[in-house]
Design brief:
The chain is mainly alpha-helical. The protein has seven helices and three strands. Strands 1-2-3 form a three-stranded antiparallel beta sheet, with no helix packed on it.
């Protein structure tokens, strides 16, 4: 559901909570022509929801990077899971969101490299979310 929220934000959607007071509220999204759905039933489950995202990725791609290529080639398989993952990676790269694996590699590099510029270390620290901070703590424990 986290990646569906990322896509929804990329598409400019506002997410709403819907609940009956009996348990966890459901995160819902509205798209003109498609109606309202629970967020987990959207982009990862329906081509009707995913194809407009693919189109926006194409519009935002540029010749200077290869972010679009993975999305483009994922369409050859006609497999929604493959295309969905490619779209999520495209958005993360466009927004410079580091994946957990990329963050771990970068953190290890910085922690093991004594000549790392201070501004790179400051950038890393300022861009950490809670999950990433936990990863850094785990990495430093093993050094």
């Amino acid at each position: 559901m986290k990646d569906n929220k990322l896509i929804a934000e990329f598409m400019g959607h506002k997410l709403g909570l819907d609940g009956d007071g009996m348990g966890e509220p459901q995160c819902r999204i509205f798209e003109k022509g498609l109606g309202t759905k629970r967020i987990e039933d959207t982009y990862s489950e329906s081509w009707d929801w995913l194809i407009p995202v693919v189109a926006k990725c194409r519009e935002q791609s540029n010749a200077e990077d290869n972010h679009w290529e993975a999305v483009y080639y994922s369409l050859e398989d006609c497999n929604i899971d493959v295309t969905y993952k490619a779209v999520v990676e495209f958005i993360k790269k466009q927004q410079n969101i580091m994946t957990q694996e990329e963050l771990t590699k970068y953190a290890l590099y910085i922690l093991n490299e004594s000549s790392t510029p201070v501004d790179e270390i400051e950038w890393l620290i300022s861009n950490l979310n809670l999950e990433a901070k936990e990863t850094i703590k785990d990495i430093t424990k093993t050094l």
